[in-house]
Amino acid sequence: MLEYVALGFLIFMAISLLFGAIAIVGIPHGIAVERDHPHQDAIYYAGWVSLFTLHAAWPLLWVWAAAYREDSRPKFVQINENTAINDKAPAEQVDDHEADADITDSITLLRHRFEVLKDRIERIENAIMSASKAA
User: Fold this and answer.
1) Are 28 and 58 in contact (CB under 8 A)?
2) Which of 32, 60, 96, 100 is the most exposed place for a label (fewest CB within 10 A)?
3) Residues 5-56: pLDDT tens digits?
């Protein structure tokens, strides 16, 4: 009689582990659906693939699903010459004419910074050449 109880307990534990593993598969997909993740289907299917690899990839799927937030998308801000980013509102809250001016100012600033870096590189190259000639 005790053998039948042990067998029943083993079958119950095997079924519980199987259903527990299947339940774990859906957690990253549930997070992805909740956060309106653009890769919901990929996370869903990768979860099922991780079931057959004994959930080796499951922590990566959880991080992939949990790392996405709709409000974490980058917002465009105006670049200031002194601080690189000033305190103005994002470009989507500013009218179109001001947004075009912000983009033009940013391009001009980037060109200036490129020229400064190019000049510094030339100075470093000249210093290296003069040091190698002296040696």
Assistant:
1) yes
2) 96
3) 999 999 999 999 999 988 998 999 999 999 989 999 999 999 999 988 888 8
pTM of the model: 0.47
Residues listed for the chain: 135
- Residue 81 and residue 105: Cα distance in Å, rounded? 10
What distance in Å separates the CA atoms of residue 85 and residue 78, rounded to the nearest whole number?
Answer: 6
**Residue 75 main-chain phi, psi, to 5 deg:** -110, 140
Angle formed by the axes of helices 40-52 and 58-66, nearest 10°? 160
Give the start-to-end residue ranges of the domains of the chain. Answer: 2-71, 91-134
Indicate the angle between helix axes 2-34 and 58-66, nearest 10 degrees.
30
- 72 contacts 37 by C-beta, under 8 angstroms: no
Maximum alpha-carbon separation in the chain: 96
Q: Is the Cβ–Cβ distance between 106 and 84 less than 8 Å?
A: no
